[in-house]
Amino acid sequence: MKKISLLIIMLLMQSCSSTQNEKNRVQVFPLNNYSQNLNTYINSESNDYDTPLIKKWVQLEKANIYKERLFGNQSPWSKEFVINSINKKTPDDIFSIENFLFQKFRENCDTKNPKSFSLNFKPYTCSWFDNKILSNMNLTKYNKYIEFDFNNRAIAINNISARTLPTNSPLFYSYRQAGEGYPFDMLQVTSIWTGTPLYIVGKSQDKKWSLVLTNSGFVTWVPSNKIALASEQFISQYLESVNENGLRVIIQPDTSIINNSGKIVQIGYTGSVFPGQHIERKNKIFYPIALKNGFAKLQLGRIHSDKIAIFPLESTPKNFVKVINPLLGRPYGWGGLYYFNDCSQELKAIFSAFGVWLPRNSAAQYQEGITLDLSALSTKERLNSLSKLGRKFVTLVYIQGHIMLYIGNYNNEPWVHNNIWGFKPADNSYRSIIGQSSLIPLLSYYPENPELISIADEKLRPKFIITYLDELFENKS
Q1: Does any domain span residue 342?
Q2: Which of 114, 143, 202, 462 is least crowded, fewest Cβ atoms below 10 Å from its Cβ?
Q3: 3-state secondary structure of 132
Q4: What pLDDT is stored for residue 477 in this prediction?
Q5: Distance, CA of 17 to chain centre
Q6: Whether pTM exceeds 0.85
Q7: Is 468:369 a contact under the CB 8 Å cutoff?
Q8: What stretches of 219-295 adopt beta strand conformation (E)?
Q9: Tens digits of per-residue pLDDT, 242-253?
Q10: Number of domains in the chain
Q11: Rounded CA gap, 469 and 319, in Å?
């Protein structure tokens, strides 16, 4: 009897221990120890508060490069750009990439060690992958040279959650692994904002999904009902509006776009760009809608004048504060989930306001400027170098898998703005969650929890690279 009682107690203890371990995989970092108002760290009385951080001629040249990505030679509306992007050699061709991604997530289905899980914690079956996804992807269509078709030029008529596979069903790796499970939907690619030019490479078997090319040069699946065809007439009207009235850029998240009847018709996000409606009225724009025949039409709209700017916004510290402060505290959004930002989408949004085009992922972003590789330095040397060499608001800080914006020094420490999920200890056993757009100091360790790895750690962070965005740079990759 005593043995049975002892066994029961041991089992209960194991159960409690298991439950406790589950709980300990997620902790909350005490971010309230650090002010989350950019005005704390930036002196509005300083002499350079209204001084551009990027020379005017440099910024205008960068803005021209940005326009090329929107509607010029580097745009999905450009025949040359499309052909070069969608007809690459194996294994970089569309068929190989799409097949690889499908097989990657299908791996280990119907086994005791499944890889991919649904919302209900249950693994996806092989049948789901084969019958619901693969049969709908129409992959054989891409196993050949793909001709350019002017009739496949398109534009986003709504904000879009772009997907790796043609499904809205989320896919998670096991929540039992620290840093996996919700909110890391592995099929979430990015947010595509209303008014973004696209090119339709193909459609799913059921036509509900379109495989589109973006101006970052990658293809992704989007719901077909969230895009419209961009006819030659539409593109001509779009370009005419830009040439006559310039561009406008939204500088605050969750911004209402209102039509002539006073109805809210769209929600805009920081970095969304639209043709201007009137040269002297910055809050008047054209936004795209879809006609019944599937083609796009430009519609008149207006936005509250505090939430929009003439593109590009002057690159002063005052304006960086104006753009960044409204983003602070917004939840972390893996791959732009729910139209929140992750680290690279946050920076892309911010610099869109200033006419500086950035790619979508962090590894590509840090290569879009003059780089200084500090990876070989010690943790202390990395931090000291950033403090001395960083240029506030125009210096990116890249570690493998994450990217940040240097905002300057405060109390003799370098500070960054970033959108980050959290910190982890050396043994990767749990996450200390920040989970939002935030301002943090870069320290060798955090006194709140010395177990957590510093972002600048020389041993566990193999890369530490800073990038200057205030100079002209030609990326030859």
Answers
A1: no
A2: 462
A3: helix
A4: 52
A5: 38
A6: yes
A7: yes
A8: 219-223, 227-229, 247-250, 255-258, 264-268, 273-278, 281-290
A9: 999 999 999 999
A10: 3
A11: 16
